[in-house]
Amino acid sequence: MKELIRLFVVFAKIGLFTFGGGAAMMALLHDELVKKKKWITEQDLLDFFAIAQCTPGIIAVNTATIVGYKMKKSFGAAAATVGVVFPSIVIIVLIAAMIQNFMDNQYIVHIFNGIRAAVVAIIANVVIALWRKNIKNYWQILIFVFSMVCLLCFSVSPAIVVVFGCLLGLFTQFMLLVKDRSK
Predict the structure, then answer these.
(1) C-alpha to C-alpha distance for 146 and 161, rounded to whole angstroms
(2) Cβ neighbours of residue 49 under 8 Å, at least 6 residues apart?
(3) Do residues 6 and 84 share a domain?
(4) Three-state DSSP class for 171?
């Protein structure tokens, strides 16, 4: 039971301080789950996050569910999932109760503009860290460039980009094996 409460609290903390969507929570997930708690490895986090992006639904909820399931099976998945959405539900209920007070408040508008700018910096930091740890050869650079072109120039769905990334990764691995055998 203590482990379930810990899962709930950790994910409630992550849910409370995640502004900007699922990608913005990556830094918090890394800090809490990999560095502080050591519940999962960096590779686990990357794998879980990739799966969460490919599955329907909110990335934050999907990631919490996967990590919770790894920790304590179904009850862990439920505890982590409820934990990550709990702060949002409370905040939404409070804001809904006082929405008219916030609509024209310039301070609130400026606060959220500042939060958005900070979230971009957080996401950029995570992207750079992931680049350094995961892009190891020119094949991966080509897959990255191909993926970015698909996303930015042709508005291809991220799920399709991930599937093509998997296929290109398998293809490059196959090509490397063929090259090694021919030596």
Answers:
(1) 9
(2) 22, 26, 29, 59, 63
(3) yes
(4) helix
* 118/142 same-domain check: no
Per-residue pLDDT tens listing for the chain (183 residues) = 899 999 999 999 999 987 776 677 888 888 999 999 999 999 999 899 889 888 888 888 999 999 999 999 999 999 999 999 999 899 889 888 887 777 678 888 898 889 889 999 999 998 898 899 888 888 899 999 999 999 999 999 999 999 999 999 899 889 888 888 887
Domain count, the chain: 2
Q: Are residues 88 and 165 in the same domain?
A: no
Please indicate, yes or no, whether residues 130 and 157 belong to a single structural domain of this protein: no
Cα→Cα distances 93→32, 84, 121, 179, Å? 27, 16, 29, 60
Say whether both 28 and 44 belong to one domain.
yes
- The rounded distance, in Å, linking the Cα atoms of 18 and 59 is 12
Q: For residue 133, give every residue at least 6 positions away whose Cβ sits within 8 Å of its Cβ, in sequence order, or none.
A: 42
Residues 82 and 41 in one domain: yes
The predicted model scores a pTM of 0.63
Same domain, yes or no: 47 and 113 = yes
Structural domain harbouring 82: 2-134
